[in-house]
Amino acid sequence: MTGLAFWRRRPLSVEPGGRRLLVPFTNGELDPVVLNAAIRIANIWEATLVPAYLMVTPLDFDLDAPLQAQVAQAVPLLEAVEHAALRAGLAVDARVETGRSATHALQRLWDAERFDRIVVPAPTTRGYGFTPKELQWILMHAPYETLILRPDPELDAHALEVVVG
């Protein structure tokens, strides 16, 4: 079984109907400041943290083809996110979703599952986060309350700028 199959077919370990906070990310990166903020939000909101790694599948591959290099990048990152959330006492339900673009993968995830709120990382000088074009698409199409977090690179790891959409 590949790492991709592990994350997709794992039984839900949280209460049915409980609050779910989606934190999508891609390109093998999730800003630690955004992760810490999402953990704090999920704790306050008493929600299950749902980190979702969005894998872009090139057109010359089947949409659900597990690309070994991307799976090798996604699984350790999801495990690290999961451990951080578990240390904070949160329920975690990690996901991997594929798509032709990050926004296509996100749409597929929204079509398949229910979430109550989304925390999306905006781009930083460190290279983490979704592009401005992707953020605009997310704000226009998100079926849930969406928070876009952009850490201020000049401040410490606990400082954030928050945009609510």
Short account of what is shown:
The chain has 165 residues and is α/β, with parallel strands linked by helices. The chain has 5 helices and 6 strands, in the order αβαβαβαβαββ.
The strands making up the biggest β-sheet line up spatially as 3-2-1-4-5-6
- Our measurement of the CA-to-CA distance between the termini, rounded to an integer number of angstroms, reads 38 Å
Report the principal-axis shape: globular
Radius of gyration: 15 Å
Q: Give the helix proportion (percent range).
A: 25-40%
Please report the number of helical segments.
5
Mean pLDDT: 82
Counting DSSP E segments of at least 2 residues, the number of strands comes to: 6
Strand content: 15-25%
What this model shows, in words?
The protein contains 5 helices and 6 strands, in the order H-E-H-E-H-E-H-E-H-E-E. Helix 2 (32-45) links the parallel strand 1 (20-26) and strand 2 (48-56). It is of the alpha/beta class. The chain has a 6-stranded mixed beta sheet, sandwiched between helices. The termini are far apart.
